[in-house]
Design goal:
By secondary structure, this protein is mainly alpha-helical. About 60% of the residues lie in helices and about 0% in strands. The longest helix is centred in the middle third of the chain and has 35 residues. It starts with 7 loop residues before the first helix and ends in a 31-residue tail after the last helix.
């Protein structure tokens, strides 16, 4: 993992969350964890990690490397300048680099993603229309 973007710890946390989601029930029941279980954790995290490493390599080679090699001032390519000038778009690369292409979430045993309801549950203090 390259230090570009400083995201190593983010991906370590991603691995930990994925491992907890896949292995916690087995560990709770006292079952053994084998190579196949660990391979499953790796297979779930590896695509995101490869994507981020590719982005890091491109940034290192095309931006950081060229800046260090050349004596002239670095001018970002036009697509990058347009991306950085657009408020909504400029946050996307940083979010993908920081959180990866697939966000991770710690699950609890028996927990499923909440179903989306057309009618939200009234919160305490709110009056539901009748």
């Amino acid at each position: 993992m390259s230090p570009v973007g400083g995201v190593g710890i983010n991906h370590a946390i991603g691995y930990a969350v994925e491992a907890a989601n896949l292995l916690s029930e087995k560990l709770r029941e006292g079952g053994p964890i084998g190579p196949a279980d660990l391979a499953e954790v790796q297979s779930r995290r590896e695509p995101a990690l490869r994507l981020i490493q590719t982005v890091q390599r491109v940034v290192q080679d095309r931006i950081v490397g060229s800046t260090l090699r050349d004596s002239k001032q670095f001018v970002p390519p036009l697509p990058l300048r347009l991306l950085l000038a657009t408020p909504f778009l400029r946050d996307i690369p940083a979010r993908v680099l920081a959180f990866g292409p697939r966000p991770y979430r710690l699950e609890r045993p028996g927990e499923h993603a909440p179903a989306r309801s057309a009618v939200p549950d009234p919160a305490p203090g709110n009056l539901a229309s009748s």
